[in-house]
Amino acid sequence: MIGKPKAPKAPDPKETAAAQTGTNVTTALANAQLGNVNQYGPDGSVVYSTSGSKSFTDPTTGATYNIPQYTQTTTLSPEQQAIKAQTDAASLNLGTIANQQSNFLKDYLAKPVNLDTQATEARTMELANQRLAPVIAQRDEDLRTRLANQGIKAGSEAYDREVNNFNQGTNDAYNQLILNGHQQAVQDILTQRNQPLNEISALMSGSQVGMPQFGAGTNQPSLPTVDYSGLVEQNYQNQLGAYNTQMQQSNSLIGGLFGLGGKLIGLSDERAKTDIKKVGELSGHKLYSYKYKKGRGDGKHHVGVMAQEVEKKRPDAVSTRADGLKQVDYGKLFGAGAK
What we know:
Blueprint: H1 13-35, E1 39-41, E2 44-57, E3 64-76, H2 78-101, H3 105-110, H4 118-131, H5 133-149, H6 157-206, H7 228-257, E4 265-267, E5 273-282, E6 285-292, E7 301-304, H8 307-313, E8 318-320, E9 326-329, H9 330-334
């Protein structure tokens, strides 16, 4: 039976959102069940248990879901528990010592660092005079002997230049010695200053609480969330595409199947037709295959309605021609095209 297609109903956004939320919650709960796997090993166990639930209300739909709450319980073996007890005791002792040692930090840090290195520099010069002075004196004597042997007289420009270069090198050596001594002294002072702080920091780091780890992680599957809203939308688009295709086919029937040559008003009087056979229905109106009688058509088979039948249901779609025969406005009858 030929019939006008019915447009698909658009999905309700609220119903789709509710279904998607339900799918998401269900998937999340299933993944929680898969992931909360009890573990048992030589060092102890990790066990998951349900400890009540909390309700969650979807603000869009008002639907309420009960979300189970889980508790993870870690139990150590007797040997590991003994080790942990000893470790905890040691950490407590270190933390106690660090706390006691930190009492003096307020006054200690309030005092500025004394970077005066004059005493160190004086001691450095004293050692330099003891160790370097004889060496420098010997080198000075060697220089003057060498210059004399080369015929360079004392008081000459060349002689004075060589002596000045030697004296400048000697001064540079003393200055570098004093600078190195100053840097070493400052480093020693800062090291001494930071020593208590480093000790307390080490004690504090040793007193931190650590969660015992044991056993290998589980390799559990994870369920992906179904894109329910996407599936609904795709299904609607598919139905809409099929509907549009059917509408095109229906309009094609109305516009061309009746052999009206692009016109929507055609001769449909039963008296003008012959070889009439019923072939189906369209929108509640019977369709017939027929030929026009000689002198009224092209002798080919056509498909259409009978004006006398249509006039009983839709008189507005039927009119009478000048020759007294009835014609049907297919545009009005089937709601497609235009006059």
